[in-house]
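Technical note accompanying the year-one report. For the benefit of new consortium partners, we illustrate the data format agreed upon in the data management plan: each record pairs a sequence with a structure-token string. No post-processing was applied to the example shown here.
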Amino acid sequence: MKHSYLILIALITLCVGCNPSTNSQKSKENNIVIGVSMLSMQNEFIVNINDEMQKKAQELGAELIIVDAERSSLKQIEQIESFIAQKVDVIILNPCEYEASSPAVAKALAANIPIVNVNSATKIAPTAFVGSNDLESGRIAMKFIAEQLGGKGNIVMIQGLNGQAAQLQREQGAKEILKEYPELKLIAQQTAEWDRSKSMDLMQNWIQSYGTKINAVFAHNDEMGLGAIKALQDAGMKDKVVVVSIDAIADALQAVKKGDLDATVFQDAKKQGAGAIETAVKIAQGQKVEKELMIPFQLVTKASIKAYLK
């Protein structure tokens, strides 16, 4: 009986020593916890950034809490409020809109939680920004169109989600170039909200309205560029219309290789995703970081496609 009692005491002591909740709590306290709010996990380019963030976080031993804002700035603000309540170490924000997502940044800063914007800007400046200059991408795309058309012709522009920094800046950059070519006319512009099917519908409407007057299409992202191509192909017009878009997602690269898409502008999702995590971790560790980490855009045509294909 005494022997059994001693065994029982030993077992109880052993269990207390290996309490899983205690070890789990200790482990969590040692980790850097980063809350991440993404624009939309239905967008391939955003998914590519997200995938790279997860890889880099695993490499650096950081814990990520990732949520999808589903293109809603209101939802995004609520997500940041939740991260503040959870007392995460750093927040990474992939903003839905330039102005409407700004309160999310303000709330994080007011709560003394550093916030890093990735890929897209907000009116209120975050602790740090990792991305690319979207003005540059718009300039590159429109410059290519101008050269292809010999500085003369009619262009339609398919815009991204209205109010988002990428939409505003890509449009601004493109229009800066248009001012240099008085014989290039922008005859229509409208949003397709970064969506391939919406872009196809929009392009079909423009084909009905303008027909062969359309000489070129500038789409703010590849998804919309590919939607426009499908509409042009269905109408038997693709061979007569220049189409340029932005991001260099896998489908777009294949379309450039085949000659369906005349050019795309490469935006480096891997460097943006990895850079955002590296910046967030450094901030959490009290290290100095660059206020802005800008990753250049690059024009991709059939002549240069090999360098971008996996």
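Partners are asked to follow this layout when depositing records. Residues 44-60 form the longest helix (17 residues).
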